[in-house]
Automatic annotation (TrEMBL):
Xref: Gene3D superfamilies: 3.90.1200.10, Phosphorylase Kinase, domain 1
Pfam hit, one: APH
Domain Aminoglycoside phosphotransferase: 1-203
Protein name: Putative phosphotransferase related to Ser/Thr protein kinase
Keyword list, A-Z: ATP-binding, Kinase, Nucleotide-binding, Transferase
Annotated GO MF terms: ATP binding; kinase activity
Species name: Cupriavidus basilensis
PANTHER family attached to this UniProt entry: N-ACETYLMURAMATE_N-ACETYLGLUCOSAMINE KINASE, TRNA THREONYLCARBAMOYLADENOSINE BIOSYNTHESIS PROTEIN TSAE
Length: 289
């Protein structure tokens, strides 16, 4: 068993208990709340062990582990009931992407954006958010990645942790967290293979994913770019505000994800120019006649 000590002045245990009930009812493995004292901030939980997906993932295990994670994700999404969790609305999505200019650009890089760069970034953000909000809405864990998924013995994989901030939001969000993980990188062809398998599983289960995989993949990529801009800001904030430097090593991979997506779509080209300016990259000018 695990004792959670969450002083009420700093942490409210009720969202954790609520989401544990919702996800548990969906048929996935989460810690069971065995006892609670909310006035003092104590929970007694079942223990899901110490073996994270991150510690176990390799070329031999990845397909099986990710298959289990995809199956659990579909169960969670199928269990969605409107009104049971907060909405991942425009205000929240905007606050998240605003962390990128505030903490990564201004604080971490020490750069003040020009008016043209600010307007370009705002344009890209609004393009992304419009896509995100138009996607079908389901339960979203928000951090469904290799550090929060546990490899279990004798129970259904994965064991799922850190779900207290769950919301109802875009259907591609948790897939991005899983396969474009800030802590482990896979070749894009492997990401595509796993994503297609999830998409096919989701369609068969009746989830409202886009019927054309190309459209679904665009939604996945644009949702991913919103997430990765946010994560760049969060990792910078963890370092500069909270003194946690361990996340700095993960910045290059997150930036790589963001650059790759921004470079694929004409609607996002102003973000590519911003990344180039921040990195001191000069590109040759091309002319057509």
């Amino acid at each position: 068993m695990i004792v959670m000590d969450a002083p009420p002045a700093q942490e409210d245990c009720r969202p954790f208990i609520h989401v544990a009930e919702l996800f548990g009812a969906a048929g996935v493995t989460v810690p069971k709340v065995l006892a609670q004292d909310l006035e003092q901030g104590f929970l007694l939980l079942s223990d899901l062990g110490n073996t994270t997906y991150l510690s176990r993932l390799d070329a031999a295990s990845a397909r099986g582990l990710y298959g289990d994670a995809a199956a659990a994700l579909v169960k969670i999404q199928l269990a969605t009931r409107p009104g049971t969790l907060p909405a991942y609305d425009r205000a929240l999505l905007q606050r998240e992407v605003d962390l990128f200019p505030q903490w990564y650009v201004a604080r971490h890089l020490g750069v003040t954006l020009t008016p043209d760069q600010e307007s370009g970034l705002a344009e890209v953000m609004q393009t992304l958010l419009a896509n995100n909000l138009a996607q079908p809405q389901v339960y979203v864990h928000r951090d469904y990645h290799s550090r929060n998924l546990m490899v279990l013995e004798g129970e259904a994989n994965p064991g799922i942790l850190d779900f207290q901030d769950a919301v109802i939001g875009p259907i591609t969000y948790d897939a991005v967290s899983l396969w474009r993980d800030a802590y482990i990188e896979w070749d894009e062809q492997e990401q595509l293979d796993w994503l297609i398998r999830y998409w096919e599983r989701a369609r068969k289960a009746g989830l409202p994913v886009a019927p054309d995989f190309g459209d679904f993949y665009r939604d996945f990529e644009w949702m991913g770019l919103q997430r990765h801009l946010k994560v760049l800001g969060i990792f910078a904030r963890l370092y500069h505000r909270d003194g946690k430097d361990g996340y700095l090593a993960n910045l290059p991979l997150v930036l790589k994800y963001a650059r790759q997506v921004a470079g694929r779509y004409i609607e996002l080209r102003r973000l590519v120019r911003l990344f180039d300016a921040l990195d001191g990259v000069e590109r040759p000018v091309g002319y057509t006649f």
